[in-house]
Amino acid sequence: MRIVLVHPAGSNWMPGKKDVSATANRMAPLGLLSMAAYLEREGHTVFVHDCLGPKASPKPDVNVDAILKQQPDLVGFSATTSGFPDAYAMACRIKKQAPGVEIIFGGVHISALGARLLEDFAQIDYLCMNEGEQTLAKLANGTNPGQIPGLIWRENNRVVENPGQAFLPDLDTLPFPAYEKLAGFPKGYNLPLFSYIKAPGATMVTSRGCPYQCSYCDRSVFKSQFRYNSAEYIYEHMRYMRTRFGIRHLNIYDDLFTLRRGRIARLCDLLASRPLGMQFNCAVRVGHTDDELLEMLKAAGCLMVSLGIETGDPDLLEVHKPGVYLDAVKETVRRIQAAGLRAKGLFMMGLPGESVESIRKTSDFVMSLGLDDMNMAKFTPFHGAPVWKTISGQGAMEEDWRKMNCLNFVFVPSEIGSRQVLDRLYNEHVKRFYSDPCWRKKFTRRLWQHRHSMWRMARHLPDMLSAMRSFENPPGEKKPA
């Protein structure tokens, strides 16, 4: 079978402002690349079309033409919430031009909402729930739809929801993602500015699932099971990236990279004893690091460690990220930096229960940590997150899927007067962090290390200036009390 897997452009920025997200960070669609490699191993001809790729057109019709040029029997879309409207619009165009092509949707938005999507969106033939490799392969292999676990489909205009597909028990049986199917990879794909020293860079995932239940996190696809690649598999994957594509820096986007200490210790031993000439970044959770492990990460080539913190208000932390405490966060940041690693804090503004006071408390806490970098997301209540069930009555919600990308405030907590207040507080915090003299001094000392990022900024200076202006408050707007 001829299959095209599509990563839709979606909505990745703020309405009314120029989308510069690809300039700041263009990530490879790893889920699609994993499925492409799996399907090829099953004997199918697979193409990957990344609508956010460096060589893709911004025009939907041009992307549809490129998809149909491959003469597919099946087209699969992987959709986030903000990407779903764009993906469905493309599916409608495909059906109009080639009615015989079958359309399947998968991804986090599909796994969260399930059968209602097939009821509401007539041009979709199938939904792939949860983990997609086995379900999609069985469909492509010609298995009767009624016999495919994890598939939602139509029979005589009736929506049928099959039992769920069992998760792959051993992730080491998966082939490496088919990076080579991306036009312009790796140089056309870039890591977040100033998050790396060596170039080119790429991304990797070495585990699936998370046993924790943070209120805001959508676990619809991989659930709460935690499965992971072995240290040996990860090392060979990294070596493949280095030798095949010349990759010199990897951002590892596991939620809980260090949850199984033994595998990370073994990986660090392999990387230290048989260096690949690569650096990497990873994320940890408070309580899953110790001084010895941090020193091993440093010796293995780790540059920066990200830490999910979310808020500096202990009452909000107890509700939304139970088990994490501010004193432990401070100590973890201190130990990360003491090991010679950079510490990046990940935060979220606008959580249910948030107030002007709690936002200012968080901003003060951020500044007290002495972080090397910081990311402040705008809280977005996704359908598959635990908080979705309780969000009603806690504030004003605008369920506009295109805006649900953590870059727009679609939810305003009851304790805060308006979206304008949230935007102002957000902008003030971002400017406060990056204007801090201590942070600027630290950044300036490292500037030459980041010449690749500086060169990229210079090449896209108008876009960078446009992004900076996005964090300016409208003149004359009244500040929150």
TrEMBL record:
InterPro entries: BchE-like, Cobalamin-bd, Cobalamin-bd_sf, Elp3/MiaA/NifB-like_rSAM, Methyltransferase_Class_B, rSAM, rSAM_horseshoe, rSAM_sf
Keyword Iron attributed: yes
Cofactor(s) the record lists: [4Fe-4S] cluster
Sequence ranges assigned to domain B12-binding in this UniProt record: 15-150
Keywords noted in UniProt: Iron, Iron-sulfur, Metal-binding, Oxidoreductase, S-adenosyl-L-methionine
Annotated ranges, domain Radical SAM core: 196-419
Enzyme Commission (EC) number: 1.14.13.81
GO cellular component, one term: cytosol
PANTHER family cross-referenced by the UniProt entry: ANAEROBIC MAGNESIUM-PROTOPORPHYRIN IX MONOMETHYL ESTER CYCLASE-RELATED, SLR0320 PROTEIN
Protein name as it appears in the record: Magnesium-protoporphyrin IX monomethyl ester (Oxidative) cyclase
